[in-house]
Every structure is written in C-alpha cells, then in structure tokens.
Amino acid sequence: MTHPTLFDTKTPAAGLPTARPAAAGAPLVVGLDLSLRCTGIAGVGWTDIVRTNLRGDQRLSYLIDTIGSFIKAADMVVMEGPSYGHANLGGHEELAGLRCAIRLWCHRRKIPYGIVPPSSLKLYATGRGNAVKGEIRSAIADRYGVHTEGAGRYDEADAYAALAMGLHWLGYPLTEVPDRNAAALNGCKWPTETVAVAR
C-alpha cells in the first residue's frame, strides 16, 4: 500500500482492496469506532481492529496505547459517538472512559477530532439513519471498494464511514454521495481549530 504509515509495529491487513486515494494534499484522517471488545480503525483504503482479553484499567491502558499508535500522525481523527439508546449498558462507564481518554489523547497532541452520532454515521453511509450494521458494511463495500471481513467487520465498516465523513467535511470527499447522505455531516461535532493539510 502507498498510504502514509500511522503506526509503530502494526500494518493494515493484507489484501484489502485499494480505494480511490484522497485528493493530493488532503489531510491525513483516521476513523475510529471505539469499543472495549473490538475497536474498528480506518484510513483511506484500509481498515484494522484492536482487540484484547484484558479487563479493567489494564484493558483501558492497552486500548489507549494501541489506538494511539494508529492515530499519532493523523491530521484529524473522527470517531463514532455514543449510542444512548443502546439497551446493553454493561461496561458503559469504561467505554465512556475510553472515549474521553482518546479525546484527551488527541487534545494533548493538538490533533483535531470530530464526533459523529451513530444515526449520522448510518445516514451518511446508507441514506438511512436507522440502518443496521450489515447495511453499513455493504454500503462501504459498494461505494468505496473496501470489503471488511472477520469478527470486526462491522466495527471496521463504521470506522471507514467515520473516515469518509471527516474527509468530506474537510472538502476532500472520497467519492460523491447523494445529498441526503451528505446532510448527515450537519449533525456532527466538528473541530473548531484549523485542520492542518497533510505533510
């Protein structure tokens, strides 16, 4: 692959199809679907996951360090926000802690970040704010040629949608999307500071 390297020891999964590269000079954006069990991570043309069997503070420490290795060179990070209507609240405090820790990690390194609500992510990816995980995955494969597989396939697809939203908001859309989908950008919390153009 010919994209900038974002990490110390990990590389994107081999064999992923190549999406259309972002426009020359586009900022380096990384999408995140944060989870305690399986965090999805995406850059232009690649996706990956972070998984661990650790628990408690050890898990949080591992996730923060590992996710940080993926985003340390990013010009902007875009993460899916919380799903307040989700019925399973097990681990809610720890997941909220992970979200806050990643935001603080970005803040301390002066990496702007955006937060996209789940319904906005679904609308952008599929044209429907109540789409299910499989529909998002299919939409990412159809629109961007990125086929996510395995246990983290839905998390990776969500992360890719977040990445695409961030680039679109910055004025570097990966591809054209219908106006209905693009309207989802209005429902997100975008950074107020200037996003640097990629090196």
Entry keywords:
globular, Nucleotidyltransferase, domain 5, 13% strand, 199 residues, 6 helices, five-stranded mixed β-sheet, disordered N terminus, alpha/beta, single chain
Describe the 3D structure:
The chain has helices at about 55-70, 90-110, 120-125, 135-145, 155-170, 180, and strands at about 30-35, 40-45, 45-50, 75-80, 115. It is α/β, with parallel strands linked by helices and about 200 residues long. The protein has a single domain (about 30-185), classed as Ribonuclease H-like superfamily/Ribonuclease H (Nucleotidyltransferase, domain 5). The chain has a 5-stranded mixed β-sheet. It is globular and about 45 Å long. The model is unreliable at about 1-20 (pLDDT under 50).
**Cα gyration radius (Å):** 15 Å
How far apart are the termini? Answer: 18 Å
Q: Low-confidence spans: pLDDT under 50, at least 5 residues?
A: 1-20
Strand order, largest beta sheet: 3-2-1-4-5
Mean pLDDT: 86
Main sheet, how many strands, which sense, barrel? 5 strands, mixed
State the secondary-structure class.
alpha/beta
CATH class: Alpha Beta
Work out the count of structural domains.
Answer: 1
Instruction: Name the overall outline.
Output: globular
Supply the number of helical segments. 6
